[in-house]
Amino acid sequence: MNLVRAIYPGSFDPLTNGHLDLIERGSKIFDELIVAILRNAEKDPLFTLAERLQMLEEMVKRYDNVRVETFEGLLVDYAMQKKAKAVLRGIRAISDYEYELQMALMNRKLQPQLETIFMMPAEAYSYLSSRLVKEIFRLGGSVRGLVPELVEQRLREKFHGTAATNK
Ligand code: PNS
């Protein structure tokens, strides 16, 4: 059997509905999808790796062919180790294209056997990013509908203890 396993890598700090939209699309075209959270000591994430892992695991448990892992080092090395044939990335707007193209071509240079597959999230999420979610929430705005309820709850706990603000 020739199963196609793909890796969907990212920071997921935090997971948004745009990420989930892509996971759902990816789960339909790949036999197996590994959502891979980068363990990056240089970045200063809002959510710890364990928190991001837990939220993602909770949200993908409805898909039989999706699982969550963490990785460090080069994505291409991790992908080869996992025997993955493809990397899945989302492109929201033209502004994403340059960075994504650069990354895809560099990954291809490093590992020509690995393909990068781009998918577009639903239009409703085309302006959505983890960075904006954090900023909006921190400044008291509502992120309802932009992130799963679980993430909204975790954001509330992070920023305000357990108080129900940002409604
Ligand atoms: O969600 P992000 O932050 O846009 O994801 C970026 C990610 C994790 C895909 C990228 O930083 C990555 O692949 N890092 C691993 C290190 C690596 O392989 N770097 C070379 C990329 S050409």
In words, what does this structure look like?
It is a single chain. The protein has one domain (5-126): HUPs (Rossmann fold). It is globular. The protein is built from 6 helices and 5 strands; from the N terminus they run βαβαβαβαβαα. 42% of the residues lie in helices and 17% in strands. The termini are far apart. With 167 residues, the chain is α/β, with parallel strands linked by helices. A 5-stranded parallel beta sheet has the order 3-2-1-4-5, with helices on both faces. The protein binds 4'-phosphopantetheine. 4'-phosphopantetheine is lined by residues 9-11, 38, 74-75, 103, 106-107.
Please summarize what this structure is.
The chain is α/β, with parallel strands linked by helices and 167 residues long.
